[in-house]
């Protein structure tokens, strides 16, 4: 799953794709059907990359990417974000069994389920992440440089350059002061 460039913006619902940056801020495009483009001010807007988000765990924090992949491979039906809190809690026990039940609130679960429903139909959801071993092996094979043939000698009828290179003249840069 490749979530590079997908961000959550504080104070705005939904997810956005980072399109670019200009002097006013970040240029973002919404991932919903409307494809609204906005410019988020650099100094006042907080962006959170989905790649970097973690969920509180009992021992170690869980990466959001792993939780979303568990949701996609889940045998049970993914509940709606507007489902009852008990339904969401039982679903999260299945897809993220080591999450911290005291620190992960129902609102967090609703947000993750909403994000899953936004992302599940996008092609980037089924892509591999940029740092996987398979892609690193492919890139290594692409970097193999083929040997180039040696340059052929100049043909005998080629003209020599008209000017010959002359050494540069030395210039004395010290100033003479009157004594």
Helical stretch tally: 4
User: What is the N-to-C succession of helices and strands?
Assistant: EEEEEEEHHHH
Q: Regarding quaternary structure, how should these chains be classified?
A: single chain
Which stretches are poorly predicted, pLDDT < 50 over at least 5 residues? 132-149
Q: Would you tell me the overall average pLDDT?
A: 76
Strand order of the largest sheet: 4-3-2-1-5
Biggest sheet details = 5 strands, antiparallel
**Total strand segments:** 7
Estimate percent helicity.
Answer: 10-25%
Separation, N- and C-terminal Cα atoms: 80 Å
- Strand percentage lies at 15-25%
Tell me the Rg in angstroms.
29 Å
CATH top level of the domain at 6-128 is Mainly Alpha
Output the structural class: alpha+beta
Q: Would you mind describing this structure in some detail?
A:
The protein has four helices and seven strands, in the order βββββββαααα. The chain has 179 residues and is an alpha+beta fold. It has a domain at 6-128: Arc Repressor Mutant, subunit A. Strands 4-3-2-1-5 form a five-stranded antiparallel sheet, with no helix packed on it. The protein has a two-stranded antiparallel sheet with strand order 6-7. A hairpin with a 6-residue loop joins β1 and β2. The protein is globular. 13% of the residues are buried.
In short:
The protein has 179 residues and is an alpha+beta fold. It has helices at 64-72, 85-95, 106-119, 133-142, and strands at 6-9, 16-21, 25-30, 37-41, 47-49, 54-55, 62-63. The protein has a domain at 6-128: Orthogonal Bundle (Arc Repressor Mutant, subunit A), CATH 1.10.10.1650.
């Amino acid at each position: 799953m490749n979530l590079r460039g997908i961000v959550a913006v504080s104070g705005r619902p939904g997810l956005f794709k980072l399109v670019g940056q200009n002097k006013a801020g970040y240029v973002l495009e919404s991932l919903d059907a409307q494809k609204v483009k906005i410019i988020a001010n650099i100094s006042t807007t907080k962006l959170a990359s989905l790649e970097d988000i973690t969920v509180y765990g009992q021992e170690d924090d869980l990466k959001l990417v792993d939780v979303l992949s568990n949701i996609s491979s889940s045998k049970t039906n993914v509940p709606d974000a507007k489902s009852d809190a008990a339904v969401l809690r039982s679903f999260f026990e299945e897809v993220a069994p080591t999450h911290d039940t005291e620190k992960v609130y129902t609102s967090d679960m609703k947000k993750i389920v909403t994000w899953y429903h936004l992302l599940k139909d996008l092609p980037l959801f089924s892509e591999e992440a940029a740092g996987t071993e398979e892609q690193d092996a492919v890139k290594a094979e692409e970097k193999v440089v083929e040997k180039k043939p040696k340059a052929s000698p100049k043909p005998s009828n080629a003209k020599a350059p008209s000017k010959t290179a002359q050494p540069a003249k030395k210039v004395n840069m010290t100033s003479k002061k009157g004594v």
